[in-house]
Design goal:
By secondary structure, the chain is mainly α. It folds into 2 domains: about 10-195 and about 255-485, MFS general substrate transporter like domains (Growth Hormone, Chain: A); about 200-255. Helices cover about 80% and strands about 0% of the residues. The protein contains 19 helices and no strands. It has helices at about 10-25, 35-40, 45, 50-60, 65-70, 75-95, 100-125, 130-160, 165-185, 200-220, 225-250, 265-295, 300-325, 330-345, 355-370, 375-380, 390-430, 435-465, 470-485. The two termini are about 10 Å apart.
Length: about 500
């Protein structure tokens, strides 16, 4: 069999449909949580598990995705992922109680956890290195635009209909995607059916990533002095250290951590973590500012972020093509400079900052992020040999989940600590209670954005060290040709 000259766009389109609908659900329920609390008569701390539980399942299963992608064909993994996702969506939509709704949500997450690593791995295998930027740019559109549109649609539906409609809207799309996978999807990647699963690694990974995600996600509501917070974080860190040492000793590790010997992959991971932490500052702090301090409705809050999502959707394919032509550094340096500058502008918010001004800064920030995220990640993955792609995609996706949880908890803690300090100063000066609350929270938000700016500046400094892969790319190209000769439908 000769080298595949034309990428299988039909297969990629089916995978994109499945990935879009699964990623879309990540942020779909955020605005609907108050309505679910009232309807199912649960507390705020309980309903938050719909978000935290989803994140935990992702954090536990994404590291194991490398095994599934290597052990089974892309068709089998896709059908399993979409079947689980569809089942979870149906269960959540008809759930009579909160416990059944949570079970449905976590089954959803188990399917979604496999989709992003699977799609990234297929793209890496299907496209030659010089065309991967464009393909990953389209993937970037799915990865960022889907969760960005979620709150806007959710806000409108929750205001006019039942929160259950959210699940019934995405269920037909999920079922169509599943049907296409069963009847139309063909195998593109080679699977190693002899690979074994190390059960101890699964346990250590689950405790490690799960403990860290749960601890940091709970810190904002439970407080850092709660044993459930620092206890789970400590258990997670210890388990993760043991997990890493175990992977170094195994012939068939669950996650191949040795890929960090490739400098550009290691650099891309650090930049992606820093960018994810900085990016979450806007995703977490902006709704607090616009709804609590400015008094803007949930629907208008979602609409405020929509132009930024649309800009990212437009720019992702463009930056992909620019990456293919010029490389990651040319895009990452100005992109991170924009992120750092717009984050600084967010640290100067006031009670009088206009709606349009907030929208413009947020949109510019998303424009900067669109120049960085996928080019940097793709540049790092391009340095890996093809057998390491499942491990590289699994590690990247896991780190983004962990960085998001840590970044959110860190920034919320900074906000609360600063707001409390400022509130005491204003109270001592004799200010009115309402003035104290708004100004203290505003100062806390501004301070968190200011710290977030320095995180973005760290990523900017590291971006100057990005280089195009050379020798490794040629080796990977040879392996792609070899792989495509082995693939059978």
């Amino acid at each position: 069999m000769t080298e595949q000259k034309k990428p299988p766009y039909g297969i990629i389109a089916i995978l994109f449909t499945g990935a879009f609908v699964t990623i879309f659900t990540q942020t779909l329920l955020n605005i609907a949580l108050p309505r679910i609390m009232a309807d199912l008569e649960v507390s705020a701390s309980t309903v938050q598990w719909l978000v935290t539980g989803y994140m935990l399942v992702n954090g536990i299963l994404i590291p194991a995705s490398a095994f599934f992608i290597q052990r089974y064909s892309n068709r089998s993994v896709f059908i399993l992922a979409m079947a689980l996702f569809s089942l979870g969506t149906l269960l959540a939509g008809v759930a009579p109680t909160f416990s059944i709704l949570l079970a449905g949500r976590m089954i959803q997450a188990s399917g979604a956890a496999l989709m992003m690593p699977l799609l990234m791995n297929v793209i890496l295998a299907a496209f030659p290195v010089e065309k991967r930027g464009s393909a990953m740019g389209i993937f970037g559109l799915v990865m960022v635009v889907a969760p960005a549109i979620g709150p806007t649609l959710s806000g409108y539906i929750v205001e006019h209909y039942s929160w259950r409609v959210l699940f019934f809207i995405i269920l037909p799309v999920a079922l169509i995607s599943l049907a296409l996978g069963i009847f139309k999807l063909k195998n593109l990647t080679v699977q190693n059916r002899d690979i074994s699963l190390d059960k101890a690694s699964i346990v250590l990974s689950s405790i490690g990533f799960g403990g860290i995600l749960y601890g940091f996600s709970s810190a904002g509501t439970m407080g850092w002095d709660d044993p459930a917070v620092y206890g789970t974080i400590a258990a997670g860190v210890v388990s993760l250290v043991i997990f890493v040492f175990r992977q170094l000793r195994l012939d068939e590790p669950l996650l191949e951590v040795r890929i960090y010997k490739y400098p550009m992959f290691a650099l891309s991971s650090v930049i992606s973590v820093a960018l994810s932490m900085s990016m979450f500052s806007a995703m977490i702090l902006m709704p607090i500012y616009v709804q609590t301090i400015k008094g803007i409705s949930p629907v208008e809050s979602g609409l405020l972020m929509l132009p930024g999502a649309l800009v990212m959707g437009f720019m992702s394919p463009v930056t992909g093509r620019l990456f293919d032509k010029y490389g990651a550094k040319v895009l990452a340096v100005p992109g991170l400079a924009i992120v750092a500058f717009t984050t600084y502008l967010f640290s100067q918010l006031s009670l009088e900052t206009s709606y349009l001004e907030i929208m413009a800064i947020y949109t510019a920030r998303m424009f900067g992020i669109s120049m960085v995220m996928m080019p940097v990640m793709t540049n790092g993955l391009n340095t890996l040999p093809i057998k390491s792609y499942p491990h590289g995609t699994a590690i990247n996706n896991t780190l983004q989940q962990v960085a998001g949880a840590i970044g959110s908890a860190f920034l919320i803690t900074l906000m609360n600590t600063r707001a409390e300090s400022t509130g005491k100063e204003l109270a001592a000066s004799g200010a009115a209670p309402e003035t104290i609350m708004n100004n203290a929270m505003l100062d806390g938000i501004n301070f968190s954005f200011f710290v977030s700016m320095f995180i973005a500046l760290v990523a900017l400094a590291l971006a100057f060290f990005i280089k195009k892969p050379t020798r490794e790319v040629k080796e990977a190209e040879k392996e792609i040709v070899y792989q495509q000769k082995e693939v059978t439908e």
